[in-house]
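User: Hey, my collaborator sent me this sequence without any context and asked if I could get a structure. I don't really work with proteins. Can you help?
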Amino acid sequence: MTAPDPSGRIIIVSGPSGSGKSTLVERLRQLPGTMFAVSSTTRPQRGTESPGKCYDFVTESEFQSRVERGDFLEYAKVFGRHWYGTPRTWVDEARRLGMDLVLEIDVQGARQVKEKVREAVAIFIVPPSRQDVESRLRARGQDSQEAIERRLERARQEMERSSDYDFIVVNDDLARASDELRSIVVACRCRRQDNLERLGKILDTFGGN
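Assistant: No problem. I've predicted the 3D structure and written it out in structure-token form, which is a compact way to encode the shape of the chain:
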């Protein structure tokens, strides 16, 4: 397998609530050379969640203090309720280790990252249908009918803006979608512009001008 570039890459994975993106990202953890950012959030911790694994749970005042210090690569208020943000320290650590950094973030955050890091690779996870999303949201048992309708409308709006992304993965079959996501990351490691230094060193071994 192609080794990651010493500077690493930023891999953005977005998708509507209920698209199955978290499951796909979890499967991507098996790919060597990748690390995964832990987002900070002001939303309450759920019973099954461990602090520092999926999210770093902070108070709103602490979050705003970090915003003022410029600590976040991206941040956004989701559904007008809770704040989410990606600390810049994850980018620094990934580059230090020469690993690809995977960001599981929403459309707002993805746009901010692409504006700051144009070479970041953005992947959008698409659910197979509205009915599929609604079924997944109801199965969670966490949202009211009003919240489900709001999430469905947001899913439609986000998919309309998917043209901002470099790749689309339709999650109608988990195994195939997982393979596609992994393949995209591996293929990005083979981009010529990411391997110029390695290519130059190999050419040097051939001698000549």
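In plain terms: The chain has one domain: 10-190. You can pass these tokens on to your collaborator as they are.
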